[in-house]
Structures are given as C-alpha cells and as structure tokens.
Design goal:
Elements: H1 11-17, H2 23-31, E1 38-42, H3 48-54, E2 59-63, H4 67-71, E3 79-82, E4 96-102, H5 110-120, E5 121-132, H6 139-152, H7 161-165, E6 177-178, E7 183-189, H8 191-199, H9 202-209, H10 214-226, E8 233-246
Parallel strand pairs: 1-2, 1-4, 2-3, 4-5
Antiparallel strand pairs: 5-8, 6-8, 7-8
C-alpha cells in the first residue's frame, strides 16, 4: 500500500509557494538518455519539473494521485497530465526513455514502483529519484531557522520526511547507480515568500490538526521582527539524485 499523500489539497497555493527546479536539472537528466522521445514525471505535483522536461523531450507524461495538484498544474502543449498513482501508471510497456520522481519517492511503495518502472521503461532507460533537502539560509536568520526546523517543530514532520533529510541515501535502491553533478535550487526571497513556503509544510498542517500552532505563530512573529519584508535573503535547497539505467523486463 502506498504511503499517505500529504499534498492532496491546495494545489494552487502549493504551486505558488514551493521552490522550483532549475532548467539545468532537466538538461542533465535528458543528457543521460540515448533517446529523448518520452519522459514520465511521477508524483508531478503542479508540473514544475514536467514543463522543464518538455523543453528536452518530445512528449512528457505527468502523473500525480492528487486531483487538486493536477487541476493546478501548468499547461504545456507537450505535457499530458493525469491523476494516477506511482505504482499503477496505466502507461504502455517499454514506452518511456526517462522516468523521474521528484520529491515524491519517499511516499511510494517502492517494490511496486520499481516493478512499474521496469515495465514502462524502454531497455536502458533512465530512472531518477530526485529530492531537495532542508533549506539553507546564512547568518542569524539561518541559525534561527535551523533551530525552528530541527528542534521546535521537528516532531510534527511525518516519518517519510527523514528520507529527504538523508538525501534519499537510506531508500531501498537495488540498482547500480551513478551520480548527477551538484545542483541546487536558489531563490532570493522576501520574508513573506519564505513564510508562504513554510505554510505548505505537512508539519504545519499536522500542528494545526493537533491544535499546536503556537510554535509556528511564534516563529512568524520573530521573522517579522528580524526580517524586513523589503529585504531578500538567499534560500538554497541542495538537489540530490539517485539514478540508474534500467534494463526493462
């Protein structure tokens, strides 16, 4: 059974407030593929990576189990969206050159997912599990954020979040893998943009459900006192990947 999906609601807000991948990620993934006909983005969310892949591939299929996410996805003539699970995509056998899951694989039933990947990929196709880590900010604002994340509200994160923090190194991955060159998402954000990102966290929803939003409210007040909204600060999310070339069976 697949893990609980923590992003089934609020696709529009999610799309506006999450960090977006750099084009260089799509370019690097495409460069690994001998054929660039069909890429599949599993757990695509609102399609931010799907659209980037469309600049490199003839066709992109973007799938997510959340109808809200799909409804809010960015339209593109080369991207076909669908509300499907990672473990049962409905795609034809040996039909994809690349299958990528970005910031999503820690919610999958990996045994079922890998079986689906092997079925759908063409021989020697590329599978990639992509994640971006805990954001990095410099200076006193960064130190306070680290305390807020790792100490104040850490207990509100779902169990699967640990996989992201460990850069997916602990995920079951029974393939010969190779590395992607170092990449990162970088944004110069205002305080409000940064807070809107925090508003999308599953940890915040968990705190709200528990009636324990006080820690988030306190941090919001601290940000207002220490980060004038007209100022921007660089926020960096390191990108990590586990990549393998799969002989489809």
């Amino acid at each position: 059974m697949a893990h609980e999906n923590h992003f089934t609601q609020g696709g529009a807000v999610y799309a506006l407030s999450r960090p977006t991948y750099p084009l260089s990620l799509a370019v690097e993934l495409a460069d690994l593929c001998a054929i660039k006909q069909h890429a599949v983005d599993i757990g695509c969310g609102t399609g931010q990576l799907s659209v980037l892949l469309a600049s490199q591939f003839d066709q992109v299929t973007a799938l997510d189990p959340s109808a809200s996410q799909i409804a809010s996805a960015e339209a593109h003539p080369k991207v076909q969206y669908g509300a499907k699970s990672a473990e049962d995509t409905g795609l034809e056998d040996c039909s994809a050159d690349l299958i990528v899951a970005a910031q999503a694989a820690h919610w999958f039933d990996l045994d079922l997912y890998y079986a689906e990947v092997k079925r759908v990929l063409r021989p020697n196709g590329i599978m990639a599990l992509i994640s971006y880590g805990v954001p990095i900010l410099k200076g006193d604002i960064g130190k306070r954020f680290d305390q807020f994340y790792w100490q104040d509200i850490y207990h509100f994160w779902p169990e699967g979040r640990k996989h992201v923090e460990l850069e997916y190194k602990d995920l079951y991955f029974p393939f010969d893998e190779f590395n992607l060159k170092p990449l990162a998402i970088e944004r110069d954000w205002t305080r409000d943009q940064f807070w809107n990102y925090i508003e999308t966290w599953s940890a915040k929803r968990k705190a709200e459900e528990a009636g324990e939003l006080g820690l988030f409210e306190q941090y919001a007040d601290e940000l207002k006192a220490t980060w004038p909204n007209e100022e921007t600060h660089k926020v960096i999310w390191p990108i990590t990947a586990r990549i393998a070339r799969i002989n489809a069976t």
